Amino acid sequence: MNIHKSIVMKIGTLIFNTIVVLSFCFLEEIYAARGPCTAPGLLNCTCADGGTIIICSEKGFTEIPSPLPAITVTLQFDTNKVSRIENGAFSNYPNMRKIDIGINQISWIDSGAFSGLQSLTTLEMHNNNLTTVSANMFDRVTLLNSLLLNKNPLLCCTMVDFFEWIPNQRSLRTLFGTCHDYNTQTDINSFDVSKCPVDGQWGSWSTGPCSVTCGQGFINRNRSCDSPSPFNNGTDCIGSSTDSLSCTLAGCPVDGQWGSWSTGPCSVTCGQGLINRNRTCDSPPASNNGTACIGSSTESLSCTLAGCPVDGQWGSWSIGPCSVTCGQGLINRNRTCDSPPASNNGTECIGSSTDSLSCTLAGCPVDGQWGSWSTGHCSVTCGHGIRYRNRNCDSPPASNNGTDCIGCSIDSLSCTLAGCPKSYGKYGREAGSWIRKTRKWKRITSRYY
């Protein structure tokens, strides 16, 4: 059995060391681009990853700085001198996923210290002076994946609520710690809390009658050690199970008689109410086991004053139709001061009885309009030709069942450019030159132009 425990503890230590090495390797990459923190209280610390990782290791801190930056995701606060984690030390940090407060001097953690950390997955508290850990430090159910409590002098029999809390943490995969109960060391995952000693606690006192029927006497009372009873070699209740108290009874019986009624004011300042009146059994009072006065010491009578003021209250809005049949318009609405109406000098309703609200119906019809003509080039490079032009129905286009543009989108116009150059035929310029010189042959050579 001891060999098995030794193997389990060695495997646990190996896993823990592996996690630590991998964590340092991972953090080394992340912390490559790091620098001094600028937040007050953290000037001696290093920040990385845009300020979401705070590294305050080995800085001599005696308490957790407050407040931390709201964007904090990882807090590396190991190897300091913190002795207590107070309630609220880690409140309002919804993004915080990892807290390392290992290798400190922590011996006590307040209730609620880690509540509200809805994103927390890793909490390292190893190498501290914790003797107990309570479930009330956390929320009822968390996303906690890794909880490291190893190297703490835990007395697990004082942690019954913690062991009841553990099964509800469905995300928890890694739990390290060692219980030091019974002068032996037991892995926290193997500890059987049902075998812990339960010390006895006293139940309520049970009180008897006075020992006499009049005058001075004693009342005896007793109690049992059953809330709870001692269990598993727990200690018995401390103190006595019996006790005596003095008691004083009356002397000779005197029957009581009622005094006069004392009447108070009406219970309201307006409308229907009650007048309470009372009397005292003091003429004379009952004493020494005499009988008390017969009847009630109080009585109520109805009283009616003027009607109470009733302040007016608006009734529901009555809403009319939209002022237009399409597009943007207004809806007029009105209400009446009748729920209830003002009465008996009550104030009238405050505000207006009418109001207007904007209303939006389907878009109004928009008829299409032609845009500008876009004109092309003339169909020829000289002389007479045709020039085509076109236009689009987009200024504006027809919408919401409006009519399309009327007319054609394409048109043609005649165009006239410079005259085309003359052709001289097969005899070319020489013939032309010759003609200019010899006008006599114009009729003969004109057929070559």
TrEMBL record:
This is Uncharacterized protein. The lineage of its organism: Eukaryota, Metazoa, Spiralia, Lophotrochozoa, Mollusca. Pfam families: LRR_8, TSP_1. Keywords: Disulfide bond, Leucine-rich repeat, Repeat. It comes from Mytilus galloprovincialis. InterPro entries: Compl_asym_regulator (IPR052065), Leu-rich_rpt (IPR001611), Leu-rich_rpt_typical-subtyp (IPR003591), LRR_dom_sf (IPR032675), TSP1_rpt (IPR000884), TSP1_rpt_sf (IPR036383). It comes from the Eukaryota.
